[in-house]
Amino acid sequence: MFRFLLGIVFGVVLVPIAVIVWLETGNVPVAVSDQPLPFEAQITGSVLHARIDRQMVSIPPIQPDETNLVAGAHIYADKCSVCHGFYGRKSQFGDDMFPDAPPLWQKHHNGEVVGVSDDPAGETYWKVSNGIRLTGMPMFRTELSDTQIWQVSLLLANANKPLPPTALQILHGAPAPAAPEAPPAAKQ
Questions:
Q1: 183 DSSP assignment
Q2: Which residues, in sequence order, are CB contacts of 73 under 8 Å at separation 6+?
Q3: Per the omega criterion (within 30 degrees of 0), is the bond before 164 cis?
Q4: Relative orientation angle of helices 40-55 and 121-130, to the nearest 10 degrees
Q5: SS3 state at 99
Q6: pLDDT digits (tens, 9 = 90+) for 68-117
Q7: Which SS3 state, helix, strand or coil, does residue 166 take?
Q8: Three-state DSSP class for 58?
Q9: How far is CA 58 from the centre of its chain?
Q10: Which of 31, 72, 112, 127 is the most buried (most CB within 10 A)?
Q11: pLDDT > 90? residue 8
């Protein structure tokens, strides 16, 4: 009986105190250059994907036509390229983030998938709209309209397909014609 009570005291009192002391001493690996905690990627990844699966809109309200893809390229160049780079050019500091900001115009090892083109557009929409904590991925729903977030999400979902020449020009980081003025969209 004594061992049982000792086990309870140890588990309920001493373990949480030890964790608090460890957290408060400044030894927790929080710098980008630190090694990740054991199972950090698995824990955060499974939680993130469960949330996205629960809230993701599966059918985009707009089509990936030339107008939307070019508009998406303008948005990408303005808001996303600083971390994720351009077509054929990685970001100057994307690799220095933790986790790395993925280069969204680079083919994966299998040569079929470019960036996040294997993700549904709704998943990318969720990530752009909400951001992802502890990754450096900001929330854009306060800066971009719903339509603009869908435009960049559809662009990225179609990154492994032929894109309009104007969109490609923008994605190569070259100056392109100004985006056409669109009527103001309601933010949601």
A1: P
A2: 155, 163, 166, 167, 168, 170, 171, 176
A3: no
A4: 110
A5: coil
A6: 999 999 999 999 999 999 988 888 888 888 888 999 999 988 778 999 99
A7: helix
A8: coil
A9: 17
A10: 72
A11: no
